[in-house]
Amino acid sequence: MKIAHKEQVNIIEAYEVQLIPIIMLAKQYGVTRQAIYKILWQAGIDTTKKRLPVSCDVCGTEHLRPRCQIRNRKHMFCSPECYHAYLEAGNGNPYIASSHGGRMARKIVAEHFALESTHIVHHEDRNQYNNDPINLRVFRNQGDHVRYHRGFDLQPLWDGANL
């Protein structure tokens, strides 16, 4: 199957700008990965797994990241310190802040119960921002947590409603 020049340009843009993986492009255009590699090679594009330069959203320093770590990300951070500074500044969207809510919940539960690294803290009302101890439960592991969500009758290791 011959790919038209316009489609070749679209493939090159999708690979270079949108960072779409070669296997996805092959599936989209109904050709083999080798055909996509050939189009990119003929256009002089390096398809090795090189790292691309990105800048940190907090401090602005430039660092290199693999394509797969850049794809589908709105924000890039050079270190955990910059990530936490971003959250503390109140810039985080609800999805980023929800992991922060999970950390806060673990901190609150740790005041009342000896948490282990495998223990899962569950928000009964499923609101990550509601870290009232009455709303929190602790399960032995992620498997028990999932079983609880699926309706199995599991007793949590610790229940904040019993305080």
Could you describe the 3D structure shown?
With 163 residues, the protein is of the alpha+beta class. It contains 7 helices and 5 strands, in the order H-H-H-E-E-H-H-H-E-E-H-E. The protein folds into 3 domains: 47 residues, Arc Repressor Mutant, subunit A (Orthogonal Bundle), CATH 1.10.10; 43 residues; 70 residues, no CATH class. The strands form 2 sheets. The chain has a 3-stranded antiparallel sheet. Strands 1-2 form a two-stranded antiparallel ribbon. It is elongated and about 70 Å long.
Number of helices: 7
- The residue-averaged pLDDT reads 86
Summarize the amount of helix as a percent range: 40-55%
What coarse outline follows from CA principal-axis ratios?
elongated
Q: Order of strands in the sheet with the most strands? A: 3-4-5
H and E string: HHHEEHHHEEHE
Q: Whole-Å distance between the termini? A: 69 Å
**Rg over alpha carbons:** 23 Å
SS-based structural class? alpha+beta
> In this structure, how is the largest beta sheet organized?
3 strands, antiparallel
The domain count comes to 3
Strand content: 5-15%
Which regions contain 5 or more consecutive residues with pLDDT less than 50? none
Q: Total number of β-strand segments?
A: 5
Oligomer: single chain
Short description:
The chain has 163 residues and is α+β, with helices and mostly antiparallel strands. It has seven helices and five strands; from the N terminus they run αααββαααββαβ. The protein folds into three domains: 1-47, Arc Repressor Mutant, subunit A (Orthogonal Bundle), CATH 1.10.10; 49-91; 93-162, no CATH class.
